[in-house]
Design a protein that fits this description.
heterodimer; A: 390 residues; alpha/beta; 4-stranded parallel β-sheet; 14 helices; 49% helix; B: 432 residues; 18 helices; 50% helix
């Protein structure tokens, strides 16, 4: 049986490889294979998978990529993920992809779709618009048609039909993966000392980089290894982190949170791994099923519209309750419109629920962790010292 | 007179032609109308400029309040600095849109309109989610403050550079099945499609005249400034007046005025009077800065630079490529209007549009005013600039300011950049 160390070492190697060698090799192994990249936060990977294509999550260049050309494309007041993504494109690190999807998360990612259309016209670059109207007969009808259009476009990329049966099969494969991810999150919430935040992060991140079947096996191996080896429990406080759903923090930042005395018991890293929240039916019309699941069982996020004021922010309160957390750390990338515009409303919801929080910003290449460690440490101490009195 | 209303404003001594005065009066009257809704009994809708469906709102006798207009009007009156800081003190990030923060700060400081009139609370927020992600959060934030009815009209983005049937049908369906029934319920007024058709007919008339005015900039000298001047011209049609008889009359007046200027071979009217010799013809991309607009404009007209076309004059509707509101297809044409607003176009389409302006208006160059607050406009502008330069062979330049945050207007930097840019155009001319 593989140890957690070995599994995480493999994840770290994949995570650090900015040439995406594993995905390149996967594609090179069979001439029929294609790779379709996507950006946060959600795309229907099932349709890509059903076309014998690898959905490849691109989440910027992290803190190991020196951004030179990318900075020439963006003003200083725009977040870092688009500039490092452009850098990946211009330095040919993504020269093997056949398509790229840009979900409707914010205007920067939206406009990046048009930039790729101009810079690399040979690649299928598509802005993927998700409905903000959640009625099945209105938003649903629009979305089913959009999904069918996407399917047609991906058929062109793959070079063959994407059948209903193939999509049903892919739905089943992704249902299994989501269930395993859900199990891992529950295990971590129960015993966070056994699943450090950095390990959970790397496992989730690896799911962006390899075929889903392999990722599911990796999760199974990891959870089996975790159950065999109890790790020492520290007197940390339990926190939920919020705001890291798009531009990624450096791994050292996540590590710093734990070192400062916080167990991360829930997060919004790579939300696509848990989206939708229940199994998508494998019977019936698969496109309708994908659509209905999106409308009715999506994760709530600041990138989508909340139609009911009374429900605003409750997703975060629920995450705290579900994971028995003691507080929330808002960690948003600088200049991130969705996270930063949402935050005052989330903070009000936490205030109403008497849940403590703290907030800071980061960039994917943030280097100084000491201030963050101090802030998170002070927050953890305040919860430990005064949490039950408030 | 209250303290806010008595504050001095930058443009108080500015030279204005009749259409500008008329426009100012129309906007001021709308604020007065809003201030009197308690007496009139009118219900109040807050909505956005891009993708606004003013004709439909008028069918329900709703008084329209436009938070963006409030912010920019407050900016021109130097009121937004304290508003923005008020919002930041209340937890709103320094990184996000200053229109939003100005609006929230204004509300927290008593919700007094830029003109000094009190603003009523909304009965309904109509979130026309068109071409700007921030809109979505903005109205969630306002709903959070006012706890009133909110209607979402999701307008899909033209990511692949075209309006598809699916997009149009989606918007129409939302109008039919959600927006109209909810507005009927809130207003108590039954929807009358013939009333809508009449308003749309009037919209189209005003749009014809607006396009004529904007296209008059093809003359040499251009009789208008299509950026600083056009901000006045588009005010009524981008807000509570599109579809009204007043707007038809306003654009008829404006057109007559510009016709006279063309006949007389005159250039634009600036705040300091008639503009001198036209030396540079510029196309601009991006919104203006409102806190120092007169100062910014002066940097152009002092150098003999006139803006002959701007993307900003299309932010509340793109009419110069043929679109008109159509009374024969009322809801479909409202949907196409929403889908066609400038920032709802893909980046390649925006580049095509700017290139066509460069050619059509025989411009000497492209100037991008990149706005810190506005990612919808700003993200990708450096690539757009290079692409337009490459296609047209004309020089382009880039300045950075903000919409209404006075902390982000550095006059000396902008002036230096502009002067260098005009020199560059001269050099290019000499080399040609």
């Amino acid at each position: 049986m593989l140890s957690t160390e070995k599994i995480i070492q493999r994840c770290q190697t994949l995570f650090e490889d900015l040439n995406f060698t594993y995905a390149r090799e996967w594609k090179a192994a069979d001439k029929q294979r294609k790779v379709v990249a996507f950006m946060p936060i959600y795309v229907p990977r099932e349709i890509i998978h059903a076309g014998n294509m690898l959905p490849l999550g691109v989440l910027g260049g992290g803190d190991q990529l020196e951004v030179i050309q990318g900075d020439a494309y963006y003003q200083s007041y725009i977040c870092r993920i688009p500039r490092s993504t452009i850098e990946l494109v211009l330095t040919d690190r993504l020269d093997f992809i056949d398509g790229m999807l840009f979900p409707s998360i914010c205007d920067v990612i939206r406009n990046l779709s048009g930039m790729l259309q101009m810079i690399r016209p040979e690649i299928y670059a598509h802005y993927y618009d998700m409905p903000q109207n959640y009625s099945e007969k209105i938003g649903g009808e629009f979305y089913v048609n959009e999904l069918q259009e996407l399917r047609k476009a991906l058929e062109k990329v793959s070079g063959h039909d994407i059948t209903d049966d193939a999509i049903r099969n892919s739905i089943a494969v992704y249902n299994e993966n989501r269930n395993l991810v859900g199990k891992l999150y529950r295990m971590r919430a129960e015993k966070p000392w056994n699943i450090p935040a950095t390990e959970a992060y790397l496992l989730m991140r690896t799911g962006m980089l390899m075929p889903v079947e392999e990722h599911s096996q990796l999760l199974l191996d990891y959870m089996a290894a975790v159950e065999k080896a109890e790790r020492p429990k520290r007197d940390n406080c339990r926190i939920v982190v919020s705001g890291m759903f798009c531009e990624q923090p450096p791994l050292s930042l996540i590590k710093s949170l734990e070192m400062s005395g916080c167990y991360v018991v829930d997060d919004d890293f790579m939300m696509i791994n848990r989206w939708p929240t229940v199994d998508i039916p494998t019977e019936g019309d698969p496109i309708t099923n994908l659509s209905t699941s999106f409308l009715k069982h999506s994760l709530k996020t600041s990138a989508t519209y909340e139609p009911n004021e009374e429900d605003k922010g409750l997703y975060l309160v629920d995450a705290v309750r579900r994971s028995s957390a003691e507080g929330v750390i808002f960690a948003a990338p600088s200049f991130c419109d969705p996270a930063l515009l949402e935050r005052p409303m989330l903070q009000d919801a936490l205030n109403a629920a008497k849940i403590p929080y703290t907030a800071f910003k980061y960039a994917e290449n943030s280097g100084q962790m000491q201030p963050i460690r101090e802030q998170a440490g002070t927050f953890a101490d305040s919860i430990k010292l005064w949490g039950e009195q408030s | 007179m209250n303290a806010v209303a008595s504050q001095k404003v930058d443009l108080r001594d500015a030279r204005k032609d009749n259409s500008m005065l008329l426009q100012k009066e129309m906007i001021a009257n709308n604020f007065k109308k809003l201030a009197k809704v308690k007496e009139s009994g009118e219900k109040v809708v807050y909505t956005f400029v891009p993708g606004n469906i003013n004709e439909l709102l008028m069918c329900f006798d709703l008084a329209g309040n436009y938070p963006e207009i409030n912010s920019l009007q407050s900016g021109m009156r130097k009121k937004t600095g304290p508003y923005i800081m008020e919002a930041e003190r209340n937890g709103h990030s320094e990184d996000v849109c200053t229109y939003v923060k100005s609006d929230i700060g204004m509300m927290r400081k008593g919700n007094i309109a830029p003109t000094g009139d009190p603003l009523p609370e909304p009965d309904v927020l109509l979130l026309s989610y068109t071409g700007c992600f921030t809109f979505l959060k903005w109205f969630e934030l306002l709903r959070h403050e006012y706890n009133c009815d909110t209607i979402m009209l999701h307008v899909p983005y033209q990511g692949d550079g075209k309006i598809t049937d699916n997009m149009r049908n989606y918007v129409v369906k939302q109008l039919k099945e959600e927006v109209i029934p909810k507005l009927e319920k809130i207003s108590g007024v039954k929807f009358d499609i013939d009333r809508l058709r009449e308003y749309l007919r009037q919209s189209a008339q005003a749009e014809d005249d607006l396009v004529w005015v904007l296209e008059s900039a093809q003359n040499r000298p251009s009789p208008i400034d299509s950026y600083f001047g056009a901000i006045y011209y588009v005010g009524p049609i981008f807000s509570a007046f599109r579809g009204t008889k007043e707007a038809v009359e306003y654009y008829r007046t404006l057109r007559r005025e510009i016709e006279e200027r063309v006949a007389a071979g005159k250039g634009p009217v600036t705040p300091e009077g008639e503009m001198g010799e036209e030396k540079y013809r510029i196309v601009t991309e991006g919104p203006p800065n409102y806190t120092h607009m007169r100062e910014f404009w002066k940097m152009f007209y002092d150098e003999g630079a006139v803006v002959v076309a701007s993307s900003y004059a299309k932010v509340g509707g793109v009419y110069d490529f043929g679109f008109r509101h159509d009374p024969e297809r009322p809801l479909e044409s409202l949907a196409e209007y929403c889908l066609g607003c400038y920032t709802n176009h893909s980046l390649p389409e925006r580049v095509n549009m700017l290139e066509s302006y460069m050619n059509k208006y025989e411009a000497d160059g492209l100037l991008i005013n990149s706005i810190k607050s506005c990612n919808s406009f700003s993200a990708g502008q450096l690539l757009m600039m290079r692409e337009v330069e490459k296609r047209t062979g004309k020089p382009a330049a880039f300045v950075e300011t903000d919409l209404v945050d006075p902390r982000y207007f550095s006059a000396s930097n902008v002036k230096n950049r502009l002067e260098s840019y005009f020199q560059m155009i001269d050099q290019k001319r000499r080399a040609a």
